[in-house]
Automatic annotation (TrEMBL):
Residues 8-35 form a coiled coil. Keywords: Amino-acid biosynthesis, Aromatic amino acid biosynthesis, Coiled coil, Cytoplasm, Isomerase, Lyase, Multifunctional enzyme, Phenylalanine biosynthesis. GO terms for biological process: chorismate metabolic process; L-phenylalanine biosynthetic process. The gene is pheA. It comes from Vibrio halioticoli NBRC 102217. GO terms for cellular component: cytoplasm. This is Bifunctional chorismate mutase/prephenate dehydratase. GO terms for molecular function: chorismate mutase activity; prephenate dehydratase activity.
């Protein structure tokens, strides 16, 4: 006798039950990851173990293929996400141990650009959710207001975008770092998923005005260049752009922003994937009034700014110092020095712990050959590179 086919409701109920089981298992795995971090405190082992991660992924790929008919790409995508979460969770735990004050602050005042739904707001929520910290959100109308709010003590932290994979460095933020008294204490990379948001369905050819922050306008320039008869209007943030479009309530006025954020303002996604690059990410930095210690079990970055003499080879001389101490430069950026025409300040992200012998020796040498040098901060590196495995 043939089995009675399951109804759609029965199938959905089974899927819901499986999803609940997956959530339970993910929670259990997270708890075990914390136990791993606790054991590493005793052994002083680093958070990441590349050999073990490779062995784990190869085993999972083989088992998935042989036992469950799951393809390798699917398995690696899922477990890359799980491994990344585990690494960040363990790093946050170890950071709390070397900074006991962080454990006593389950509530943080955080300043960021724009209102709810801006990319800076989403980054703030993402960063502090990993640290089980509740937020008092302080919306700011400019990057300068973010730094001033933290410097004055009205906020504990500020979240600032520093560079984007499509539009490059955010110069206004680099210029602010020349003069701020704040320290960089953290970073995160946030995926940026730009789309056109409107109060109602609209044809692209009927759009007349597009509101957004200048950065999304730049990051979506290829798509926007193909639209005819449109005007770009600048707003303080993507959230302000969404609010403006909601208030106008016109089908020919749209905003560029995140689709989920658009729902906060009653807007719908009328065109997705409009960024110049498919893989569009923005790196954010977290600033505070005091520097934090960084566990030596965690990969770290140290950011400094310096100015050199105007003599030929001055910058090269500083780079050779870092080479001799085997310190990798992750990023080198130059910006004009305000009030000093034709002179530049150099920003460097170095892959090193500030307290390491190599970093201290290098900085002591750099001080003697530069006109000005300041360390902006040492902080955990949250650019979690995927474990490399050969997919069968």
């Amino acid at each position: 006798m043939a089995e009675t086919p399951l109804s759609l409701d029965d199938i959905r109920n089974r899927l819901n039950a499986l999803d609940d089981k997956l959530l339970s298992l993910l929670s259990e795995r997270r708890n075990l990851s914390l136990e791993v971090a606790k054991s590493k405190v005793e052994t002083s082992k680093p958070v990441r173990d590349a050999d073990r991660e490779q062995q784990l992924l190869v085993k999972l790929i083989n088992n998935g293929k042989e036992k469950y008919q799951l393809d390798a790409e699917y398995i690696t995508k899922v477990f890359y996400t799980i491994i990344e979460d585990s690494v960040l969770l363990q790093q946050a735990y170890l950071q709390n141990l070397v900074n006991p004050a962080l454990q006593r602050k389950p509530l943080a005042r955080v300043a960021f650009l724009g209102a709810k739904g801006s990319y800076s707001h989403l980054a703030s929520q993402d960063y502090f959710s990993r640290r089980n910290t509740d937020l008092i959100e302080l919306n700011c109308e400019s990057f300068k207001e973010v730094t001033k709010t933290v410097e004055s003590g009205h906020a504990d932290y500020g979240v600032l975008p520093i560079e984007n994979t499509s539009s490059g460095s955010i110069n206004e933020v680099y210029d602010l770092l020349q003069h701020t008294t704040l320290y960089i204490v953290g970073e995160l990379s946030q995926p940026i998923e730009h789309c056109l948001l409107s109060p109602e369905e609209v044809r692209l050819e009927d759009i007349k005005t597009i509101y957004s922050h200048p950065q999304p306008h730049q990051q979506c320039s290829d798509f926007l260049g193909r639209l005819k008869g449109t005007t770009l209007e600048t707003c303080a943030s993507t959230a302000d752009a969404m609010l403006k479009v909601k208030e106008l309530n016109r089908p020919d006025a749209v905003a560029i922003g995140n689709a989920l954020s658009g729902k906060l303002y009653g807007l719908q996604n009328v065109q997705g994937n409009i960024a110049n690059q498919t893989e569009n990410h923005t790196r954010f930095i977290v600033v505070a009034r005091k520097a934090f210690s960084v566990s030596d079990q965690i990969p770290a970055k140290t950011t400094l700014i310096m100015s050199t003499s105007q003599e030929a080879g001055s910058l090269v001389e500083t780079l050779l110092v870092l080479q001799r101490h085997n310190i990798n430069i992750k990023k080198l950026e130059s910006r004009p020095i305000m009030g000093n025409p034709w002179e530049e300040m150099f920003y460097m992200d170095l892959e090193t712990h500030l307290d390491s012998h190599a970093a201290q020796s290098a900085i002591n040498e750099l001080v003697t050959i530069t006109r000005y040098l300041k360390v902006l901060g040492c902080y955990p590196s949250e650019n979690i590179k995927p474990t490399q495995v050969k997919v069968p």
